[in-house]
Each structure stands twice: as structure tokens, then as C-alpha cells.
Amino acid sequence: MARRAGETSGMSVLFSATLVTSVTLTSTVLGACVGATLALTGAGGAIIAVPLLMFGLQLSVIQAAPIGLLAVASSAALGAFLGLRAGIVRYRAASLVAAAGMFMTPAGLWAAQRVPNTPLTVLFAAVLAYVAVQMYRRARGSHSASSSALSIPCRLDSVRGRLIWTLPCARVLAMWGAVAGFLSGLLGVGGGFVIVPALKKSTDLPMQSIVASSLAVIALVSVTGVASSAVQGHMDWPVAIPFAVGAVCAMLIGRTFAKRLSGPRLQQGFAVIAGLIAFGLVIRVVMEHV
């Protein structure tokens, strides 16, 4: 009897170790997919982090969101650091947008804890579908023309090379930062799909500077969400750490190929994949209630 009990215990330990290894490996691979996507498509590409965790590890939105935020924060921080070193991050504008976002992130987390998983999943699918459509249109060049120079609230001073700060400029940046922060807490997304178009519409900054500044905002806002989730005990660290490591490593590798692989076709391909993922989320909800 004692021998049989020992064998059963040993098999249980072996099974547990195998399961942990499998989860760690899967989490790392999924994180690598997010990092590679972020490197090749820019800010906004990491929105697929939560759906990948939901499909790959069968997590709910509320379980996957903090893990996705940790990976997004890590990858975005790396991108922002490289942008700062290159001198293309508008740190004053990024700080204002991030401050508004960090203020609203806890509100998004609070709402996420109180909204049932089904409507939260449907909402995420709707946001993902919207991002897919907008990215596809931008890649095709079929989006509407940007605002005229006179209507842009945040304009660059041609002499000093800095943004001219006005009340309308500060107001519009803070507003979009608040929206991105709330969605970050609610859905576990970085908010690049909000910040990049907002900066493009509200400023006359070059696209390279917009993406780098957006990454700085995403890093700061996501860190707030990660910290809040960790304090509340909602972070699954055994899954989150390998996921974040995979994302950062893949982003570093992906950046070396980004110039050769990125382009309209790649953006369109990602948009199609994002749309299919959004459709899959809706099908998942329907199947759970059949």
C-alpha cells in the first residue's frame, strides 16, 4: 500500500511538472507572437495579446488582461527606450497623455472586475474588429485625409522643433489619454490603436515620432495597470513572466527584420488576422451559450 501510494504521488508530481512546463512553453510562444507583431506592425499590434491567451491557455478576459498588460508594458518600454535614445520621443506630450491614462486605468480595472465575462468578451471583439478595419484602411491608403494644418490643435514650432502648447492642445491630448487608459484597464490593451491615430490627427508630428511617443505612453499606462492588478492579486505570474519574456525577446529580434518585412501588405495581413480573431471570440461566446 505504501509503495502504491508513493508511485501515485510520484506520478502526480511528474504530471504537475509536465503541466507547468507545457504552460510555460505555450505562454512563451504566445508572448513571442505578440512581440513579433508589435515589432513589425508598430504600436497597436499588441492588441492580440489577450485573445491569444484566451485561445491558447483558455483564460477569460479578466484573467488574460493583466498578463497582456505586463507583456505590452515590457515591449513598449523597450521600444520607448530605443526611441528616447534616438531622440524621437516627444516626452512632454507623452507625459501628459500618460498622466491622463494612468489616472483612468484603475477605473477601467474596477469596471472589468464587475462586468461579466461574456459582455466583456463581446466588447473586446468589437474593439478588435474596429482596429482591424482601421488598420486595413490605412494600409490601403483609403482612410480619410488628415486635418488641415489650421485645424490641428498641436502644431510644431518650425524654429524650435517643439510642440506649441495651447489649452486646446492639452485638452485633446488629455482626453485621448483618458480613453486609452480606461480601455487599458478594462480590456488589457496598451491603447496604441487609440493613441497613434489621435496623435496623427491632433498633431503634425512625423509618423516615426508618433509611434515612439505612443510606445512611451503605452509603457507608462500599462505599468499602472500591472501594478494595480498585482496589488489586487489578479496577476498569474507563472503565466505572465514567460509571456512577457517571450514578447520582449521577439520584439528585439523582430526589429532587425522590421524594415525589410513591414509594409502595407503586412499591415493588411495583420488586419485580416485580427478580424478573424474577433470573429472567433464571438463564435466562442455563442458556443458557450448554446
Automatic annotation (TrEMBL):
Domain of life, source organism: Bacteria
Primary site of residence: membrane
Keywords recorded for this protein, A-Z: Cell membrane, Membrane, Transmembrane, Transmembrane helix
Bilayer topology annotation: Multi-pass membrane protein
Localization annotation: Cell membrane; Membrane
Transmembrane segments: 41-62, 69-88, 94-112, 119-136, 173-198, 210-231, 237-258, 270-287
Cell membrane keyword on record: yes
Pfam families, sorted: TauE (PF01925)
Keyword Transcription: no
InterPro entries on file: TM_pro_TauE-like, TSUP/Inactive_protease-like
Family under the similarity heading: Belongs to the 4-toluene sulfonate uptake permease (TSUP) (TC 2.A.102) family.
UniProt cross-references to PANTHER family, sorted A to Z: MEMBRANE TRANSPORTER PROTEIN MJ0441-RELATED, MEMBRANE TRANSPORTER PROTEIN YJNA-RELATED
Name used for this protein in its record: Probable membrane transporter protein
Native source organism of the sequence: Caballeronia udeis
